[in-house]
Description:
The chain folds into two domains: about 15-265, TIM Barrel, CATH 3.20.20.70; about 270-335. Helix content is about 40%, strand content about 10%. It has helices at about 35-45, 55-60, 90-105, 115-120, 130-145, 165-180, 200-210, 225-235, 250-265, 270-290, 295-305, 310-320, 325-335; strands at about 15, 20, 25, 50, 55, 80-85, 105-110, 150-155, 185-190, 215-220, 240-245. The strands form two sheets. Strands 3, 4, 5, 6, 7, 8, 9, 10 and 11 form a nine-stranded parallel beta sheet that branches. A two-stranded antiparallel ribbon has the order 1-2.
Amino acid sequence: MTTTDSSTSLRPLRIGDIELEHPFVQAALSGYSDWPMRSLARSYGASYTVAEVMIDRFANEVKRPNKTAHHFHIEDEDHPVGAQLMGSDPEMFVPAAQRLVAAGFDVIDINFGCPVKTAMGGCRGGYHLGQPKVALEIIKRVRDSVPDETPVTVKMRRGIDDTEESRHNFFHILEQAYASGVSVITVHGRTVEQKYRGPSNWDFLREVKQVAGKHIVLGSGDLFSADACVEMLKQTGVDGVTIARGAIGNPWIFRQATELLFEQKTPVPPTIHEQRSALEMHLRLSQRFHDKTALGTIRKFGFKYARLHPESDALKKAFGKLRSLDDWSALLDQFYTQDEPGQFPIVDEAQT
């Protein structure tokens, strides 16, 4: 399908009965896609966001109110918003999914893609790609336990590794997941074994979409620019893309991708003052959400924002020393007072 000639070449992206404005969505990001990041992404054009992945046990046991209850925070303008669940025991997914629906999340996303050691060691995330029977039991239990109008989606990698058995397991889970009522499947073009090494395999994404046919497939992997987001649509035929690490400290990517796709508008990096406005908004949101730890949060994000600044290296060092609001004011005065063009981040995939 052609994606750059006109906006009519793309069918509307739907997650169940939820119709999205465009095909560029923010993925779940452990340690990052909290409410402030999701709120900022929506204000800069994301059509849909997914909260940080929650372990099923955590979703079941967290008490309200306490210092962890903020993971359930949703405001009216956040919709549509998804919650991502990860776990090992199919039975534990049921009450966790029900609690997330009761909290107001519009979509339940099941994580079969996380490649980190703690997830694999705990028989969670990408581990389930090696045991299709358990993966499909989890899907069925979640689909049966939440209201019919609540879409259930799945996040997968292209397999545990590059063996034929892994490939067979992937496509078996894919086909049976759709047959069980899953609305959307997101596929990351790397294997679990790869983690984040090497390029994401977009040829595999194209094959997945051909197999899925009319079913909705979202692509993931190596999306660090608006051009890459549109190019993935063009090369693979997927219905939409989920922007993950490429959105950390770069909320402009959603608007840039939308304007490039529908208006053929060449992306321009945000100016210094535009970057300052986003940072100030991010801190205000973090102060509401994280209170006393807001500065630590903005410091973490600041290292990513710094990639768009022409004095990137010096700015990263300044964010590393950020300990007080006085430091924050000094940082803004030093790096964000004079307006000038920004730069697109140069991202080494292996280093993110």
